[in-house]
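Here's my example:
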Amino acid sequence: GDISLLTQLCERTRADAFGACVANAQSLGANALLAVRYDATEIMRGVSEVLCYGTAVRVVAVRRGGEEEELA
């Protein structure tokens, strides 16, 4: 079965971890994340941590002629 309260808590935790990852990448000047991963570890009985990590990069489009165009 599905315990909806726990499912909602897990989804919220995952979303919060992803939001923190995105905010950190943006603070570094990145506009994209590559190879995003999640990791969950029980740090003590009944307490888990959820991590989200990836490689923060700045992506630009290069037009013919060598001009760079910033992407969002």
Remarks:
- The radius of gyration is 17 Å.
- Helices lie at 4-27.
- The longest helix spans residues 4-27.
- The chain has a mean pLDDT of 91.
